[in-house]
# Entry
Amino acid sequence: MASIRQICGSITTNRIFEVAIILVILLNSALIGVETYTANETIKLIQTCILGIFTLEILMRYIAADSNKSFFTSGWNIFDLSLVLIGYIPEDIVANASIATAFRVLRVFRVLRLLRTCKEIKLIISVLIKSMSSLMYNVMFFGIFIYLFAIIGVSIFKLPNPDTLSGEALVHYEQYMEQAPHAPTNSPDPFGSLDESMFTLFRVMTGDDWTDVRYNLITACEKGVLPISPNVVTVYLVLWFIISAFLLLNLVVGAILNNYQIVMEEQKKAEKLRS
# Structure
């Protein structure tokens, strides 16, 4: 006669059971979205039933586990258990409204469980996890370049403070602001400070209207607001775009592809050993 652990194990690994849980997760996520528009007792009742289903599922997986250690060393089990426990915290007993909102928002993360149901998605996650160490070095490498270019940007392209200008210099500055204001109008000087300069370089890297930055700076050069040649602006921005968009981003892609190949080979070896 099969034990309770064996019964729970056969149920939780059954494909029909997994599909049913996926449907419940999708329903739960959809209802959380509906609750952003309206809330009623019917939705609350359905959500309560769904929480009961998730509770039963995590309990069955706990019973089916070989030991407490094997259950609690699984990141997915900890993730699922945490979401179930959060679901039992009544929102009305949380004094801080922001904390209550955070608990409510955390429930939607249950949709991430769908990632464990697809072999291909599992492979992608394994690749990303394996790539974290190399990606950290890429981030450091990227940080060095963006910091260097940001300092150069502030040193060369920072617009003068209009409060310190007078006479012809102030007239030229006002003419420049009328002809080429910051885009959008509420944005600060793109190279007015180190942090804003770094954000501007990030904007250039994404290709978000970075040519507007060039045209405005060229206009500032032509108006005499910036005492530099327009060619300096073009060389600086094009050079940064080439380094960031073509070199640095391709390093990230290369690291991920390399680890993808490694993970694929490891899985093939594991499948050969199992067979």
Remarks:
- The chain is about 75% helix and 0% strand.
- The mean pLDDT is 81.
